[in-house]
Specification:
The protein contains four helices and 25 strands. With about 400 residues, the protein is mainly β. The chain has a seven-stranded mixed beta sheet. It has a four-stranded antiparallel beta sheet with strand order 22-21-24-25, with no helix packed on it. It has a three-stranded antiparallel beta sheet with strand order 3-2-4, with no helix packed on it. It is globular, with a radius of gyration of 21 Å.
């Protein structure tokens, strides 16, 4: 995964490989052409020479995002996720799409859009199953420090008629990947309901509910589903918004959830209406859920979530972009090389000490640059900690050697 805020550009990748454009869906940032069709026999997308059909998103939205300013409107791009994406660009993030014929990989150097090049992967209502390789890539991406935005929709919402709703697609990834069963401690329920809920968890310091874009006080589901959480599988998972009448601290009837997994983070949402801005393919029936619904709370929720997903997770500590930051990526490390990202308001050479899981210091090095590789060829497989003391504070990072 690429480095984070303060070191190099944060990159957000919006997926379009899983029939996110089928039927009335248009869960993309931008499309200049609308010539994608879905085979009735294979249920797979294919390009046609015709001038009509579903949206055909390209890697880089046009016009170029370098032209976006604080006053740019969401119709700068043409997709149902364009408002959200424009907001991401205004935040200073680079936005790309993974086109319908792209590949979901992690650690494949020949793929220019390998997930290792991005900080956050956004998948809104996937309508096709992920392959075994793709499932492992996504879980490994999160494990190594990536941020994953999982958005599902209600049951019986199979837009390309292949027999799989988005909630089934997500649950298949969570239950049958080769990395870890139920890695994030959540599963989408078989449900379909409409509701505006103000049943928000009482978490006054939560960065998604009370983040830089404001406070989230409600959410409006327009044909959505819920989640059931499993804190045994992942002790970090928590519900943020719940159905009306249910417990706001429980593990059922969860509308929005968050979790961490090794060095990465996950946000899960049960309704694809939340990011829908009401624009996109003119052949689709779309409406504005991003701004119009829930008194603008969805915009706050999604942007707080994206900002949280881009922020490095260092054990139990969240980091502040204006403070000293210590981060490693990828995680687990590759080729016995620990890549350390170290930022201070005024950089100066700083020692880093490496400890094993028993707390024994086994190696020291000097951080002379903000991005630096440390040779860890002497380390055997296992969990290790890097410790840096500077400016009166101590930071510890956890990394894995495989």
């Amino acid at each position: 995964m690429i480095s984070t805020n303060g070191w190099s550009q944060i990159k957000i990748l919006f997926d379009a490989t899983k029939a996110e454009m089928a039927g009335n869906a248009d869960w993309i940032v931008d499309a200049d052409a609308h010539n994608i069709y879905f085979s009735m026999s294979t249920h797979l997308p294919y390009a046609s020479t015709g001038s009509s059909g579903a949206s055909n998103p390209q890697r880089f939205p046009t016009p170029a995002q370098s032209g976006i300013t604080s006053t740019t409107t969401e119709d700068y791009w043409q997709g149902a996720l364009s408002y959200w994406a424009v907001d991401c660009a205004k935040q200073g993030y680079t936005v790309e799409s993974l086109p319908f014929n792209g590949q979901i990989t992690y650690g494949v150097t020949s793929n220019v859009q390998d997930l290792s090049h991005y900080n956050v992967f956004v998948v809104t209502e996937p309508n096709m199953l992920f392959s075994n390789t793709e499932k492992d890539a996504i879980v490994n991406f999160v494990k190594a420090g990536g941020g994953l935005m999982m958005i599902a929709d209600h049951t019986v919402s199979d837009r390309n008629n292949d027999g799989y709703d988005s909630l089934m697609v997500w649950n298949d990834l969570l239950s049958t990947n080769n990395i870890q069963t139920d890695p994030f401690g959540l599963a989408f329920d078989t449900a379909d309901f409409n509701q505006t809920s103000t049943n928000v968890a009482n978490l006054p310091t939560n960065p998604i509910l009370h983040g830089p874009k404001g406070n989230v006080t409600r959410a409006q589901w327009s044909g959505g589903t819920t989640m059931t959480l499993n804190t045994t599988s992942n002790s970090s998972v928590k519900g943020l918004i719940f159905k009306t009448g249910s417990s706001a601290t429980g593990t059922t009837n969860v509308m929005v959830a968050q979790a961490t997994f090794f060095a990465g983070k996950v946000v899960a949402i049960g309704d694809s209406s939340i990011p829908d801005d009401g624009t996109g393919d003119t052949g689709d029936t779309l409406y504005d859920g991003y701004i119009a619904d829930a008194n603008g709370n969805h915009q706050i929720l999604l942007m707080n979530a994206i900002i949280w997903l881009t922020t490095p997770f260092l054990g139990t500590n969240e980091v502040d972009a204006s403070a000293t930051q210590l981060h490693v990526a990828p995680n687990p490390i590759q080729n016995k090389q620990l890549k350390v990202f170290y930022q201070t308001p005024s950089f100066e050479p700083t020692p880093i000490s490496i400890y094993d899981a028993q707390g024994r210091m086994i190696q020291q090095a000097m951080l002379n640059e903000s991005i630096q590789n440390i040779d860890c060829s002497s380390l055997s497989s296992g969990i290790y900690f890097g410790k840096v003391a500077s400016n009166g504070t101590t930071q510890t990072i956890k990394f894995i050697v495989e």
